[in-house]
Specification:
Layout lengths: L2 E4 L3 H10 L3 E5 L2 H9 L4 E3 L8 H13 L3 E5 L9 H18 L3 E4 L4 H8 L6 E4 L7 H7 L2 E4 L7 H9 L5 E3 L4 H8 L4 H16 L3 H18 L2
Helix pairs in contact: 9-10
């Protein structure tokens, strides 16, 4: 078991330590980075579209230069009203840097799937698409992305379920996005239960045993982390 995309909470960290669950934490501020470093957490770092500004990018750039994985970054016109032009400028600056330095990127694509697809085609890299929940462009993203993390809504959200059906299992990862996200998606705060449910649902969709599925997903995560060394 693993958690390829999660936001910090003490509850999550305690459970991961208790059950030895490797994870990649998403960090989008220098304050969060300090917390992650204090707890010796493996993390990605980027200016999230919800907070996109030239000032924040400039402030975080020295930390981005030290990060091994960039993200989550992208564009969003569903869950935020942040100016899309600014979001795009900040996204392209980060995506260009990551491509130039060969650093894997975690993508946030909400409502801007087509626009982001057009951008990342111009910057070849290792792309990890977090909780993709759009019914469109799945095959197109499959052409350019190396990984897709599956949110806890799989089996409940038709778009997430469709993604699992269409994307090869060798590209799939598990994610919780944090306990608050689990509660939002499936009305539960059962962190371990949510990850187990995702494994079981993916196994059912792919017609594999639960043990086979978990082993493949974990191997995918290990491969991603090796690419970030």
């Amino acid at each position: 078991m693993h958690d390829a995309h999660v936001h910090y909470s003490k509850e999550v960290v305690d459970l991961q330590n208790q059950y030895d669950i490797p994870a990649l934490f998403s960090v989008d501020s220098l304050e969060q980075l300090q917390i992650a470093q204090q707890h010796h957490l493996t993390c990605s770092l980027g200016v999230h579209p919800w907070m996109a500004s030239d000032e924040l990018l400039e402030k975080m750039m020295p930390a981005l230069e030290k990060a091994k994985i960039i993200g989550e970054i992208g564009m969003d016109n569903v869950w935020c009203t942040n100016d899309l032009h600014t979001q795009k400028e900040v996204f392209i600056a980060q995506i260009a840097y990551a491509s130039r330095m060969h650093k894997p990127v975690v993508l946030h694509t909400k409502g801007q799937e087509k626009e982001i697809l057009e951008i990342i085609r111009q910057y070849p890299n290792t792309y990890f698409v977090h909780w993709y929940s759009c019914p469109d462009y799945i095959d197109e993203y499959d052409e350019v992305a190396s990984y897709f993390s599956v949110g806890p809504s799989v089996g409940k959200d038709d778009s997430v379920t469709k993604l699992v059906e269409r994307i090869p299992i060798e590209k799939l990862l598990l994610e919780s996005d944090g306990i608050d996200a689990i509660e939002w998606a499936i009305q539960s705060r059962d962190y371990l239960g949510a990850l187990h449910h995702s494994i079981e649902t993916i196994a059912q969709i792919k017609k594999l045993s639960i043990a086979q599925t978990e082993a493949i997903l974990d191997q995918n995560f290990k491969r991603l982390m090796l690419q970030a060394i």
